[in-house]
Amino acid sequence: MITKEREIKALITLLGDEDQNIRNIAREKLLDFGEMASDYLRDVVHKDYEGRIRIEAWKILEEIRLEKLTDEFRKLSQAKVFDLEEGAFLLAQFEYPNLDVQAYKQQIDEMAEEIHGRIFEIRDVRRMVHVINQYLFYEQGFRGNVESYYDPQNSYINRVLDRKLGIPISLSALYLFIADRLDLPIFGVGLPGHFMLKFHCEWDEFYIDAFNYGQLLSKNDCVNFLKRMGYTYNESYFNIAKPRDILARMIRNLVLIYHQKNQKNKVDVLERFFSLIVNH
């Protein structure tokens, strides 16, 4: 262990070498050490080391972090049961590495508990959804971000919870996480251009637009909505979306946003995540 510690420290020193080839060799070896080198690299980043060494150390740390996150996406994709909520928080950690996931899950738990206290005696399912919508969109203030629709923050579940702003799919994801805690038969439906929710039980079926304050819609309303957006009717649009497909669509949205911002590094990493999710 002492030998490896000395080797890591020596390699970090070489990150400041004038010779690019030596710096590259040191970088690759530090990447091979992975997590073992992380503490030493963090120490360098936060101390008064030579500028080049600090910059290179930060880059290596970020690469190690993203490789670890990629492994987490791989595990998620290979799991027997695909956990959308876990995936949404992994995606959030791409942009927010120090995210306190448990604190945000606790926040969702508390919202679900509050809603449960209001709906547990209600038998009319539409009335039940109305109560949920009243709490989420009017009391809590969640809404669609029509002013800055393409702000990437709209796609990260932690920022949706922080700002109470989102796009159709991220607001729907939050709704799904709460519905799952309440054992409600609410599912995602990936309509083109606008993600929706479907309440489906033996005696009733209707759609919920989380982007528009939980507006309740019939299937015919959705068909007319699609026509106004220029889409012809296709029954497959109304299929229940698999959790895997929902996360893939969330990632794809971010890929498009970062592509427009010319942030190629982020696009490359997100496309790696996307590939792991869809090519399972």
Overview of this protein structure:
There is one protein chain. This protein has helices at 2-14, 20-33, 35-45, 51-78, 84-95, 101-119, 125-139, 157-163, 168-181, 219-228, 243-260, 264-278, and strands spanning 143-144, 165-166, 186-189, 196-201, 204-209, 215-217. The chain has 280 residues and is an alpha+beta fold. It has 2 domains: 2-78, Leucine-rich Repeat Variant (Alpha Horseshoe); 84-278, no CATH class. 30% of the residues are buried. The longest helix has 28 residues, at 51-78.
Key structural traits:
single chain; 280 residues; alpha+beta; Leucine-rich Repeat Variant; two-stranded parallel ribbon; 12 helices; 6 strands; 63% helix; 8% strand; elongated
Number of strands: 6
What class, by secondary structure content?
A: alpha+beta
Task: Give the assembly state of these chains.
Answer: single chain
Largest sheet: 4 strands, antiparallel
| Order of helical and strand elements | HHHHHHHEHEHEEEEHHH
How large is the radius of gyration? Answer: 23 Å
Question: How many domains, as an integer?
Answer: 2
- Helicity level, as a percent range? 55-70%
Number of contiguous helices = 12
Mean pLDDT: 94
